[in-house]
Amino acid sequence: MKIPFTASARTAMLIGSENFSNPEGAIIELVKNTYDADSAYCYILFDGTDEQITDIYIIDYGCGMDISTIQNCWMQIGTDDKQQNVQTANGRIKSGAKGIGRFALNRLGSQAVMYTHKNGEEAYAWKVDWNDFNAPGKRINEIMADLEVVSLEEIRCSLSELAKRFNVSLPKFYSGTILRISNLADKWGEESIKHLNSSLQDLVPPFNIPAFQQYLYVSGSNEYGKITAKQYEDFDYKVSAKYEDNILNVDVQRNELDINALQSEYRGLFNQEAMKQFPYRLEDFEKESYHIEMPLEGLDGLQKSKLLTEYSSKLGAFQFDFYFVKSSKSDISSEKSDAKYPYRHFSPTHRRLWLRKNLGIKIYRDKFRVRPYGENGDDWLHLGDRYSQNPIGAGQRMGGYHIRQNQIVGAVEISRLQNIYLQDKSGREGLQENEIFALFKEVLLGIINIMEKDRNTVMYNLSLLYDKNHPKEDAKKQADKAQKEGSYSETNYYAISQGYTVVKQELEDKEEELRLLRNLASTGLIITSFSHELRNLSIQTKNRYEDLLYALNQVTSQEKVQLLDLEDYKNPYEVIKNQKRYDESVRSWLEFSINSISKDKRSRKTVNLNSYFSKFRETWETVMKELNIEFDVYGFTDEMKVKAFIIDLDTIFNNLISNSIYAVKSKRTTQNRKILIKGNLQEDNIIIVVSDTGKGLDEEYRNNPSVIFNAFESSRCNKNGEKIGTGLGLYITKATVNEYKNSSIQILPQVEGFGIKITFKNLI
C-alpha cells in the first residue's frame, strides 16, 4: 500500500517566513523575478503617508504571463521551470531556481494583487489573501486565488494614476507584471527604505554596466529615483581578472605613487636589478596599467595545490575585480616618510567613508548578489587571518606581505551555466562548501597575491633606495670616529651631523613602535581609567527594572494589559522583563571587564586557589546560565597555593573557558552541555583539569594535538564554515604557564569533548 504526501495550507506561510528572514530580502527576490522576466526596467514604489507606508508596488515591463504560465508556474510550489529553462528569451541567465520566489509576497504583506499581460494574450488580475493559508485543518490545494480577465487599458489607467501620484514618468505598458502588496507585515521607515536603496545598489557589481535599470520612489519624497551602480576612482590599485578555459587574464592598474616623482627624484629606483624587468620598469609605470596572461598553475601558491590538480576542470569561468584602498597615507607606522615613498595625494576622510560603505568582496551570480559574502565586510577569504600570521609592511622585506581585510573592495562574477558546481546551500544563504568552492577561494587569493607581490616589490625597492641614499650604519660609524678624533674640521662636522640625523630617525622609529604598543593597550587603560564610572553604571542598571515597573504600575496594571491580548514585543511588562535580562548580562560583562584589569592583579603574590576559583566561578556563572551550560568548579582546598600574578591566572583560565564555550556551542545541542574545572593535590604539585563536553579536537589535530599551541593555529569557524579565530588564545595560555618554574600544560586524551591539564608547584 502506498499513500501520498500532503501539505497543510500553513506550508505557504512557512516558506515565506523561513526563506525570507526580512522584508528587504523579499523585495530583492521579487526584483530578481523582474530581471528573469526580461524586463528592461524595474520600478519599486512605496505608497502611503508621512506616518505610514501602506502599499508596495513592484512593476516590470517584461514578458508577462499567460493563463498557462500562471497555472503551471506561478501557482505551482517549487516549479522547476527555471531549472529547465535557464536562459530567458533575450539570453539572460535566470537568477531564480527554486520556484518559491512568489512567497516573498506573503513575507511582505497579507494582501497581494498581480496584474500581468503577455503580448498577444489576455490580461489578468490575480488576487490572494495570505491569511487564508492559516485556516485550521486546510490543505494547501484547498486554498484558492482569484483570477479574472481585465483589459490592457485598465492596467494602463492604473499605472497612469500611479505616475501622477508619485510625480514620475513611467514607460507605456505593453507587457509585463505589476505587483501590489497591502496590509504590510513590517513598518517601513526612512532608515529601512534607505538601507533597501543601498542594497539595490549592491545588486549589480560596481565595476560593470547594470543588467537592467532599477528605480525606487517613495510617495511625497524627492530623495529617491534611478538606482545607479557604485563607482570609485580614488584607489591605490585596481585589478581586473578574467578566467576561462584554464587561462587567466589579469590587468593591474597602479595609482598609489606620484608618477612625476618617479620620473624625476626617484628615477634611481629603476636602476635596481629587481626594477629592470617587466612590469616594474619606468615605462610600465608611465602606462599606469599592465596585462599578464597565465594558466592557473602559474599563480603563486597554486603550483602545489592538490585541489587544482583534481578539480581544475570543474572550475568554470569567472571575473574578479577589486580595489586596494588605504584609508590613511600609510598602512604601517614605518612607512610614514614622504621621503621614502612618494605617495599620491588623497583625502583620507573620503576614503574611510567609502570603505565603510562598500568594504568586502562580494559574489554575484548572473548579475545578482549571493549573500552573505562581503556583507558588512564579511571576510570569507580570511584576509585578516593571512595578515595576522605575518603582519609586515610592504616595504619591510620581500615575501610574506599581505593586505588587510579592511583595505579591499571587490566583486566576483559567476554564472549558473558556467559554474554548475558552485551551488546554493539548502538555506539559500551562501554557496556549498565543497572542494570546488575551496579551489575557487585559492584562485582568488592567488589573484590578490599578484597585486600584493607588485606592491611589495615596488615599496621594498623604494625602501632600499632610501637606505642607499641615507646610509645609517656608515653614518653612525663616521660620526663616532669624528667625535673620538676631537678635531673640528669641516669633514668631521659633516660626519657628526649625518650621524645625528640617523640617530634622530632611529629614535623617531622607536617612538612610533611605542606609540603602537600604547595604542594596543588603550582599551585596557580606558577601562581602568573609567572603572569607577563603569561600576556606577553597573549599579544603576541593577535597580532600573524595579524603577520602570513602579512607574508603569502608576498608570496601569499587569492585569489590565493582559486583557488587551498584546504580542510580547508590544506588552510593556514583557519588554521590561526582557530588559532586566539584558541588564543582567551587561552587568556581568562590565564586572568581568573591570575586574580583569584591576591593580591588585598586576603584582605577584601568594594566591589561594580555593578563593580564586570561587570568585572565578561567580564571574562566569551568569554567562553560563544564559548559554544553558552547566558550569562547576570543585576539588580546590585552602592548602592549594601558588605564587603568581592573578592577571596571569585570568589569562590562562579565561582563554580555556572561552574555547570550551565555543566547543560546547558548536555541538548545536541543548543536551549534556558541561564545562568543569577540577583541582587536585598530588604530592608537591597542584593539578588543574579544565574539561568540556564540546565537539573535541578537530580531525586535523588528533594525531598531533600539541599543534594547537602554535601561534595563529585555529580551527574556530563561523556558521558558514569560515575560519574566524586568531589562533593566539592557546599560544598565549601555554606561554603564560611556561613562565612559571616547574609548571606544565598538556592535552588529555578524551573519549568525549576536550580536556587539558595544568600543573603548578604548590607553595605548602
Describe the overall structure.
The protein is an alpha+beta fold and 764 residues long. The chain folds into five domains: 10-227, Heat Shock Protein 90 (2-Layer Sandwich); 237-469, no CATH class; 472-520; 521-597; 603-764, Heat Shock Protein 90, CATH 3.30.565. Helix content is 38%, strand content 19%. It is built from 22 helices and 22 strands. Strands 5-4-3-6-2-1-7-8 form an eight-stranded mixed beta sheet, sandwiched between helices. Strand 9 (237-244) and strand 10 (247-254) form a beta hairpin.
Tags for this model:
alpha+beta, globular, Heat Shock Protein 90, 7-stranded mixed β-sheet, 8-stranded mixed β-sheet, 19% strand, 764 residues
